[in-house]
Amino acid sequence: MVVQRLTAACLLFALGTSVAAAQELTKIKLTLDWKVQGPHAWFYLARDKGYFRAAGLDVTLDQGEGSATTVTRVLSGAYDAGFGDMNAVIQNAAQRPGEQPVMVYMIYNRSPFALIVKASSSIRTLKDLEGKSLGVPAGSATHRMLTPLARRNGVNDAAIKVVNVAPNLVEQMLTQGDVDVIAAFAATTYMNLVAQRQDPEKDFRWFFYDEYGLDLYSNGVMVSQKLYKEKPEAVRGLVHAINKALIEVAADPSAGMAVLQKVEPLLRPEIEQPRLLYFLEKQMITPETKALGIGDIDMPLTPERVWKAISTKSPADICSCNCNKPPVTEIDCNLARAR
Asked: pLDDT tens digits, residue range 282-302?
């Protein structure tokens, strides 16, 4: 059922796309948001099945260090494109207007941000976070959005002790009691706990950001201002190739796992395929994507959700944008639709 709904949503998007003529290949360096996991399958499938090349592109895929770090990597010029967090794009638009990456294909229509504590923990409300230790990896988009979450819920985030941890040790730090709470993508932690033979439902308590006032977009494909302005056809081709691969992975998740195992031989399909399905069901299939297709957003509704993200900035940051509406270069649905 999940596959049928997502495939239909992707096809709505695909009807409006066109393949760029393949002449001299345009080189694109694309950074992912994290280490190789199930939801990265469509990127590698697009590469291995030649969809990027068919679009006139020579795409290099690198693993990431966090959804917010993706934005920094693209902003610095080290990468031409990336898979990362929309809210981090907005934060950088506030600090360096006109230089921020452009979001061209929204994948996580619903944010996966969550705080996770043990079920036995004394933390039962967000206010209980004060005085506790929080484990997060550097470059975490979930951590970046903690301050606005705290602000909306009357929590003094300065009273939370932040402990930087290695990405592969986040859940272990929580289960061993080294930190009181962790901030992470829900599906990432959920399946990592399953892999550690924990019961995510019974053994842990979850605080989802969207249930506490932060209903935000999350990860999508973004490109640099340079690529966006100088090679729009390459951007169209990039989006088309990813969308085509996403349709295939949704229809046959096992094919996506086969591709990922070539990239990471130690990858466990019994963990990564359910993780992929979790993202499809929880972050990607929404009323908006059912109506418009994956990748697109409802422009009449978008300002409200984008303004929620903009409102998470400090007053000084908002003023530095010198804008009365979301900067148009943060999201370009015309390129995403490739119509």
From this structure: 999 999 999 888 998 876 655
Angle at 55 between CA 54 and CA 60, to 5 degrees: 90
For residue range 139-154, what is the model confidence (pLDDT) as tens digits? 899 998 999 999 999 9
Please identify, among 212, 241, 271, the residue that sits at the C-terminal boundary of a domain: 212
* Sheet architecture: strand order including 102-106: 57-62, 26-31, 81-85, 219-223, 102-106
Domain count, the chain: 2
**Domain, as residue range, for 73:** 2-110+217-337
d(CA 308, CA 321): 15
Judgement on whether residues 247 and 331 belong to the same structural domain of the protein: yes
On whether both 183 and 283 belong to a single domain, the answer is: no
Residue 229 tokens read as 């302005």
* Same domain assignment for residues 119 and 55: no
Is residue 112 within 8 Å of residue 60, measured between CB atoms? no
Q: How many CB atoms lie within 10 A of CB 211?
A: 10
- In this prediction, residue 9 carries a pLDDT of 57
Q: For position 61, what pLDDT does the model report?
A: 98
- pTM (predicted TM-score): 0.82
Query: Contact at 8 Å (CB) between 42 and 249?
Result: yes
Check whether 328 has a pLDDT greater than 70: no
Query: Do residue 303 and residue 192 come from a single domain?
Result: no
In a shared domain, residues 123 and 106: no
Residue 83 has pLDDT above 60, yes or no: yes
Give the pLDDT confidence of 165-219 residue by residue, as tens digits: 998 999 999 999 999 999 999 999 999 999 999 999 999 999 999 999 998 999 9
Q: For the domain that residue 132 is a member of, what is the CATH number?
A: 3.40.190.10
Rounded to the nearest 10°, the torsion over CA 286, 288, 290, 291 is 170
Q: How many other C-beta atoms can be found within 10 angstroms of the C-beta atom of residue 157?
A: 17
Quick one: 45 exposed, middle or buried, by C-beta within 10 A (0-12, 13-18, 19+)? Answer: buried
Say whether pLDDT at 319 is over 90. Answer: no
Q: Residue 184 in contact with residue 142, Cβ under 8 Å?
A: yes
97 and 121 housed in the same domain: no
Tokens of 254: 């096992």
